[in-house]
Amino acid sequence: xxxxxxxQNVLDIAIEHARQGGATRITRINLVIGEMSSIIDDSVQFxxxxxxxxxxxEGAELQFRRIPAQFRCSECGxxxxxxxxxxxxxxxxxxxxxxxxxxxxxxxxxxxx
Length: 113
Hints:
Blueprint: H1 2-20, E1 26-34, H2 41-51, E2 61-67, E3 71-73, E4 79-80, E5 96-98, E6 105-112
Parallel strand pairs: 1-2
Antiparallel strand pairs: 1-6, 3-4, 3-5
Helix pairs in contact: 1-2
């Protein structure tokens, strides 16, 4: 259910910036979502379609760009993207530690008329 709150925030941000730019309609919102963020694209789309009705963003396309998770090796410090469920470093087989890369969620840009 947290997707409703974050989707409302996305809508508010997009409308605020569109108005500041003098736009009358939002046609597309480009979102960046980290693989580890627990945000589900389909849920965001579902809530967006519902809450954007009657706003300048009604009918806007949501474009999702996923950022893969990155881990840092606890042994050698190498940054890597895990393969499947293998969280060992590909260089030295040390245990990977979660970093902030892959936990993003933000509006990258909006397209307006």
